[in-house]
Amino acid sequence: MNQESSESAVRSELVSEDGKNNKSVLCQRCGSKVLCPGTAVLAEKQLFLPSMRKKSGLSNVEGSLDGDTLTAHWVVDDMFTFENVGFTNDVGRIKYLICADCEIGPIGWHCLDDKKSFYIALDRVNHA
Question: Residue 1: which pLDDT band, with cuts at 50, 70 and 90?
Answer without folding.
Answer: very low
